[in-house]
Design brief:
heterodimer, A: Rossmann fold, Rossmann fold, 4 domains, 6-stranded parallel β-sheet, B: alpha/beta, 26 helices
């Protein structure tokens, strides 16, 4: 076989191994595939898609629909399927379509936007804008209900403390709770009006839900005012359209006679419903349509406060009539790492101290190494490549220890890939900072916008800053540096000239005497540069021409300003494409905020540039991250973002009982805020209130605290799987560390201790 | 026009007797309009006075070939031929017979003269009436920008008028076809309530928007003997072109008019019907055929090369697979490939580069005149217009657009004038920012650059807002700043400041007068920016100012009285409406004249409706759904509000799909029939927003390209 591991496209196409061949033999009906990490499921699914096309199973106006989880996987699929079908003489990009769930929902809604009450070019706001709207709504609510939630505070807090919490902590907490309510309500296709109606029928007070419902109304109103929908709306509306218009459903069923779903373990209720509608039979009792779902239930890591759940895939796999297949072999890791991962699954399912979570990881199918002769052989075993470190580091010590280790190892292994994986973004920033301090080159594209995107938007931001501060010599010099930015990487002479010229500009006290000189005061002529450095002089003459052009263009609408700048400073197609997209984004921003001036819009662009906002650009990394492109560097990412990728050496950090709780008495949970009484997890409580509303026939009544407990179990389960995902990223070497947390009380996570003991036993045994 | 070039069948139509009723049909490019124009000249040549002839078209631009022929020296002798649209005719009749119908039509002040509303002023009134309702929760569940909401309610009224159903049925009709979210039903109720409110308000205040003009003509004037006599007597010969693009009401009137007319020529384009989103109805137009004694069908395309015709036929076959259309062997056309060239790129701007380079090659290497090239997209957003215009300019190719890349309200000149107006009217309490002042000064003062403008503003801008009177004088600022700004520019600033300050102390004048004075007394004078304006575009500042003044005038004529009664300032109201996007959203009018010898950038429909064939077409955004999809508007529906829709029937995806297929077919074939030599496709894997697009037009071309690939293999 040869599954080229996820993220790598360059390997040659080879014959599939037996388990993959069985999947390729698929003809029709519903099929479920349980795969293990590194088993080449994406590759196999691409092969199947190409095969369906080549077999002539489609009419000219039909397509194989491939649904995957994240944007970066979309291009991967396209390249693979294209390469398979082009080799057989087919036109690329025809006969199939690859979409994320959001992309698919967008396609469906676009078929009939009117049915969802939308205009032709309805706007989809991104996460940041959605957050901003939510924040506004939360503030509005808090202004009119300042003390409504105080009864959830610890009773012994004094007034000052309460005031302080109201100011500093409450808005974020309320945002989190409201967001959970909004998302869940949208998932249940419940509009604010209907939620209010139902609430009115209840006689008991449900304060969290009432608050969530108020904020939901405010939030939705703000969206409508902008003529926009958010990502959750898109999915809700897509399903709504399919349910309402049977002729639409029929058409789409015809158009997509085969549906191949990757990463099915992270499927949500709505995703399952949409796909099952699309793949269902047109006759009430007819045969099912053609739907292949591939996933690894052990790698479901997107479940917290979403409706995603691996149970959907598990149930599907066990459903009568579903063809069941598995992909158990993986050539990714050494035998030792495979052993460790398999043991984790085994232990969790048999001996986890919390019995109720023993369903978190399935021990079967266990990962098997590839058979002899397989084109993707496992790396030679190296038990010494595993380091489970139980040293009691503080948070800072852990970062320093890992950074030291990376800095020592990398120079000796310039051809290897290395990743440091953590749970939270801010932790990743800290380790990245520490690595840079040691002179290690860090790749953090997976955390936020890619570097290329940040650089391009950063360049434009600098130019806009220059335009909003036309009298500033500092911004003038900065603009010059942006224009000549290629030279910063070039040979010494060019770079030195750039530095000299920009230093000179920075000292130009009267910018007008350079840019728009009168007959007597041409600053440039007075510098004597024409004689001392004619090349720099010529550059400044050219720069002056451009800068004047830009200053003149400042009167145009902002998108046209940005396009003008981009035409002058960018040459790469991907940069120009990004500028075009940014221009549209800024135009939307300026339409949404008519009072904004250039300065505000510059700030907005700056936010993108400073990578606070993840923005999908057009560079290679945006289209799918390939660790092989970053050999000899330290890739810093979260464990979530590293899914689907593999690295020669992997560090997993902060594996303590705070980030990976196990239901032990001494475990703490970040969702249970310290200032909230009775260890309540308000998000979970709010959702429980909403669920109660949705299922009024249920005998159970709302019991405060119950949902908070249950939610702990869910977190324990998800973190077990996350640890499993982290371990299975490693090809050859794995290092796991923990730290004692902010208050110095945290312990190593129970599964880490268990793995440590297991590994000790193994070593002694061998 | 040279009669010798006409074909036999054209001559036959032209030379029909002077009392003939002729129905002429055929596809685009078959010489129908040419025959129509020649028929007009023939009638006059035979001694029929021009004043007895009415040329009726669905929109003004479609009368252009007739008007052009009449402008040839020596053609017109005696009275003038009338060219009109039904709306224009209705308005003229309302003006003429107002005293006779104003009371019976329900106007509250029948003895007062009527006020005709433009689309812009109608929107203003609509906004005025609907805005308070929005705060009461009207249109709560619909995602739509406010100014589009107003225009769609107006659109519904217009459709009711031209389709010929009572405007009180709008809501019911829309509700009957709805199958989506039940909340939308209330939205339709709201749309109906607002339409009714608007109509009542118009009747109370003698305001006539387009819909009311048409309805009064339909229900009160046409049935009135005097008016009908007047029309029938005045116009005894009718030439009606593009009847497929006209409205059912026009067709109804024609059906009653034709028997009384001495002669008529009705021209019908078989594959068109592009204006149905405006209420046009090809079906009701075609029924008029029965009233004509002579029927002619032109079938030959006189425009396209054999290769383009072959391409057209391939596309036709894809559109109508069941029709088993045989591909006619075009003499000399063995393959489609010479007529179709895809330009593919991964990114959108990359594709634009290729398009610009290819156009430059055609113009510079092959000597194709620029006006023989057109670049089309389903929409032409400002950013595309701007980007492509820039690239063509870089290539040295002259380009023009059917409009500039900015509406009047986004023109820098407009911003400048309105900022100065706010300075001159401190009582409006609409303060401007320091940036706005800087940008206004850069434009107002000749020779002032952005840097000096910024220094000036930092020095003179007041801490507390009090309009122009609060600005410091040049003499009051620091000597260093004075020196940096220069005294020459400082003096100009002073003149402008003094003028504004002086004005701000006197009583407020009508806003258009203010703008005229500001322009005439200051800005157009030597030393000021509008004297020789050349900042960013080839549009002259004077032209934009004139447009703005005209827009204000129309606003004053229609809304001035009401505002005066309520004590509100018209200028302030105008400025706010501009900020809200309700008015000044249209484009500078004189632009159309443009540069004749230039590549045209236009939305596909605009090009079609201008009906001017070219040698080469470039279609951009081929993957866009907009090639096939109608404009989705949550408050209105072109099909459901048409005459062919049975009230109560639900509009579903099959209807949508059918409508899309017809739209795409009409559009694609209509464009190809106006293409002489070749079609270039701008294909980018990722669209402007970075998303992959897979619209139905792309699918059609994929099939055509597959055929070409097969041809190549066989060849």
């Amino acid at each position: 076989m040869s599954p080229t591991p996820e993220g790598q496209l360059s390997q040659p196409i080879i014959q599939p191994r037996l388990s993959q061949e069985k999947i390729r033999q698929y003809r029709r009906g519903w099929m479920g595939v349980a795969a293990v990490p590194g088993s080449g499921k994406t590759w196999t699914l691409s092969l199947l898609a190409a095969d369906l096309i080549k077999r002539g199973a489609l009419a000219e106006d039909q397509e194989v629909l491939v649904v995957t989880l994240v944007n970066s996987a979309v291009d991967n699929f396209y390249s693979r399927v294209s390469s398979f079908i082009e080799a057989a003489g087919f036109l690329p990009h025809t006969g199939y379509r690859v979409r994320t769930l959001h992309g698919l929902a967008h396609d469906i809604v676009r078929e009939r936007p009117d049915l969802a009450g939308l205009e032709q070019n309805f706007q989809i706001i991104d996460e940041r804008e959605a957050n901003a709207i939510l924040k506004e709504s939360v503030h509005a609510w808090l202004r009119s209900h300042p003390y409504d939630l105080e009864h959830y505070y610890l009773p012994d807090l004094d007034d000052n403390r309460r005031e302080q919490l109201n100011r500093e902590k409450l808005p974020d907490l309320v945002s989190d709770v409201a967001l959970a309510i909004i998302r869940y309500a949208k998932d249940q296709q419940l509009t604010p009006d209907r939620l209010v109606e139902r609430l009115e029928t209840l006689r008991v007070p449900l304060p969290l839900l009432e608050m969530g419902s108020d904020i939901y109304s405010l939030y939705q109103r703000a969206l409508l005012y902008r003529g926009a929908v958010d990502f959750d709306d898109l999915i809700r509306l897509a399903l709504g359209n399919l349910q309402r218009d049977s002729s639409l459903l029929e058409r789409l069923r015809y158009r997509w006679p085969y549906i191949l779903e990757d990463e099915a373990q992270d499927s949500s209720r709505l995703q399952e419903e949409i796909l099952s509608l699309l793949s269902g039979s047109s006759e009430p009792n007819g045969p099912p349509g053609n739907w292949v779902r591939v996933g690894d239930p052990n790698q479901a890591i997107y479940e917290t406060f979403t409706t995603a759940n691996p149970k959907y895939l598990r149930n599907f796999l066990n459903r009568k009539g579903v063809i069941k297949r598995s992909l158990p072999e993986s050539g990714r890791s050494t035998a030792s790492i495979i052993k460790l991962a398999n043991y984790l699954a085994h232990w969790a399912s048999q001996n986890h101290p919390l019995e109720i979570v023993r369903d978190a990881l399935a021990p079967e199918p266990a990962i098997l190494p590839t058979p002899p002769g397989d084109p993707q052989p496992n790396p030679p075993d190296d038990p010494k490549g595993i380091h489970l470190v139980l040293t009691k580091f503080t948070a800072e010590e852990e970062i320093k220890a890992v950074a030291d280790s990376v800095a020592r190892w990398l120079p000796k292994h310039p051809e290897s890939t290395l990743a440091v994986l953590v749970l939270q973004n801010n932790r990743a920033d800290r380790i990245a900072e520490e690595l840079r301090r040691r002179g290690v080159e860090v790749v953090d594209s997976l955390l936020r916008s890619t570097q290329a995107t940040r650089q391009a938007s950063g360049a434009l931001t600098h130019l806009l800053q220059f335009l909003s501060n036309p009298t500033s010599a500092r911004y003038l010099a900065q603009a010059y540096r942006v224009w000549r930015r290629e030279e910063r990487r070039e040979a010494d002479e060019a770079r030195a000239r750039l530095e000299r010229a920009s230093e000179l500009l920075r000292k130009c006290n009267r910018v007008e005497d350079f840019l728009w000189p009168g007959a007597e005061h041409d600053w440039l002529e007075q510098t004597g540069l024409a004689e001392s450095d004619p090349a720099a002089y010529d550059q400044l003459i050219e720069f002056r021409r451009l800068a004047r052009r830009w200053q003149t263009a400042v009167l145009l609408p902002v998108d046209q300003v940005l396009l003008t700048l981009a035409q002058d400073i960018f040459t790469q197609p991907s940069e120009l494409a990004l500028a075009h997209k940014l221009a549209n984004l800024l135009r939307q921003a300026s339409q949404g905020h008519p009072s904004w001036g250039l300065k505000d819009l510059t700030t907005e662009l700056g936010v993108i540039a400073r990578n606070e906002r993840r923005f999908i650009g057009f560079s290679e990394d945006d289209q799918g991250f390939d660790p092989q492109q970053h050999k000899g560097k330290a890739i810093v990412a979260t464990m979530h973002k590293a899914k689907g990728l593999e690295f020669d050496r992997v560090y997993l950090m902060s594996v303590n009982n705070y980030d990976f709780p196990s239901g032990e008495e001494y475990d703490a949970y970040y969702s249970e805020k310290w200032f909230i009484r009775d260890h309540l997890n308000l998000q979970a409580e709010a959702l429980a209130q909403l669920q109660l509303l949705l299922e009024p026939a249920r005998d159970e009544w709302y019991q405060e605290g119950l949902a908070s407990r249950t939610d702990r179990f869910n977190l324990v389960r998800e973190r077990l799987r996350l640890l499993y995902v982290g371990i299975t990223r490693a090809r050859r070497q794995l290092i796991i560390t923990y730290n004692t947390g902010r208050r110095g009380e945290a312990r190593p996570a129970t599964p880490l201790v268990e793995l440590y003991n297991y590994w000790e036993r193994q070593q002694i045994g061998s | 026009m040279n009669v010798i070039q006409l074909r036999v069948e054209q001559l036959e139509v032209i030379h029909q007797p002077l009392n003939a009723h002729i129905f002429l049909e055929g596809p685009a490019g078959s010489g129908k309009t040419t025959a129509g124009v020649e028929r007009l000249l023939y009638l006059m040549d035979q001694g029929i006075p021009g004043g007895e002839i009415l040329v009726l078209t669905p929109q003004r631009t479609l009368a252009a070939p007739y008007e052009a022929a009449l402008q040839v020296p020596g053609v017109v002798a005696g009275s003038m031929v009338t060219t009109a649209t039904l709306g224009g005719l209705a308005r003229r009749m309302v003006e003429l017979f107002w005293p006779m119908i104003s009371a019976q039509a329900g106007f509250a002040q029948p003895d007062e003269p009527p006020t005709f509303l433009t689309l812009e002023t109608a929107q203003y009134y609509m906004a005025h009436l609907v805005r308070p309702l929005l705060d009461q929760g009207y249109f709560d569940s619909v995602a739509i920008e406010r100014n589009r909401l107003y225009s769609q309610i107006i659109d519904n009224l217009n459709k009711a008028a031209v389709v010929g159903f009572p405007y009180t049925e709008i809501g019911e009709r829309l509700q009957g076809a709805w199958q989506g979210e039940p909340a939308q039903l209330r939205v339709y109720e709201d749309a109906q309530a607002c339409a009714s409110l608007f109509r009542r308000y118009c009747l109370e205040h003698n305001l006539l928007d387009f819909s009311l003009q048409v309805e009064i003509f339909h229900h009160h004037l046409w049935p009135m003997a005097q008016c009908r006599e007047h029309l029938l007597h005045s116009y005894q010969h009718l030439i009606v072109d593009n009847i497929e693009e006209d409205t059912p009401l026009t067709h109804d009137l024609l059906a009653e008019w034709l028997p009384s007319a001495r002669s008529s020529l009705l021209i019908y384009d078989q594959e068109a019907g592009y204006r149905n989103f405006l209420g046009a109805d090809a079906l009701s137009g075609y029924k008029l055929k029965a009233l004509c004694s002579q029927v002619y069908i032109f079938s030959e395309n006189l425009i396209s090369s054999p290769e383009v015709q072959r391409l057209t036929e391939h596309m036709q076959r894809i559109f109508s697979p069941g029709a088993a259309l045989a591909i006619r062997e075009q003499p000399g056309a063995k393959q489609i490939s010479p007529a179709l060239k895809p330009l593919s790129a991964r990114f959108y701007p990359e594709m634009l580069d290729q398009v610009a380079a290819e156009i430059a090659r055609l113009v510079q290497a092959e000597g194709v005149p620029p006006e023989e090239i057109v670049v089309l997209a389903p929409f032409l957003p400002d950013s595309l217009r701007f980007s492509l215009g820039y690239r063509l300019e870089q290539q040295g190719v002259p380009a023009r657009s059917h409009r500039p890349s900015r509406p009047l309200r986004s023109e820098p000149v407009t911003h400048c004038l309105l900022s100065l107006a706010r300075l001159a009217h401190p009582a409006w309490n609409l303060p401007i920012t320091q940036y706005e002042l800087a940008y206004a000064l850069v434009q107002s003062i000749a020779g002032l650059d952005l840097v000096r403008a910024q220094i000036l503003c930092e020095s003179v801008f007041p801490k507390a807002w009090s309009g122009a009177a609060g600005l410091l004088s040049f003499a009051e600022i620091s000597p260093e700043a004075q020196e940096r700004i220069t005294f020459r520019l400082g003096n100009r600033y002073e003149r402008l400041r003094l003028w504004l300050a002086e004005y701000s102390q006197s009583p407020e004048e009508p806003f258009d007068h203010f703008l005229s004075r500001l322009f005439g007394e200051v800005l157009s004078q030597p030393g000021f920016g509008f004297h020789q304006y050349s900042i960013t575009d080839d549009l002259q500042a004077g032209e934009i100012t004139a447009n703005l003044i005209e827009s204000v005038q129309k606003f004053r004529w229609s809304a001035g009285e009401m505002l005066a009664q309520s004590g509100a300032s018209l200028g302030r109201e105008y400025v706010q409406m501009v900020q809200d996007g309700v008015i000044a959203a249209q484009y500078v009018r004189s632009w159309q004249a443009g540069q004749a010898s230039a590549v045209l950038l236009a939305p596909a429909y605009t090009f079609l409706l201008n009906n001017r064939p070219v040698s080469y077409q470039f279609w951009l955004d081929v993957g866009s759904y907009a090639w096939a999809q109608r404009l989705y508007q949550p408050l209105t529906h072109p099909y459901v509000l048409s005459r062919n829709w049975q009230t109560g029937r639900v509009w579903n995806a099959d209807d949508e799909f059918q409508a899309e297929r017809e739209t795409l077919q009409r559009l694609a074939l209509g464009l190809l029939r106006r293409c002489r030599r070749g079609l270039f496709l701008g294909l980018s894997e990722l669209g402007e927003q970075g998303f992959e697009q897979r619209g139905p037009l792309l699918a059609v071309f994929q099939r055509v390209l597959r055929q070409i690939a097969e041809e190549a293999r066989e060849g």
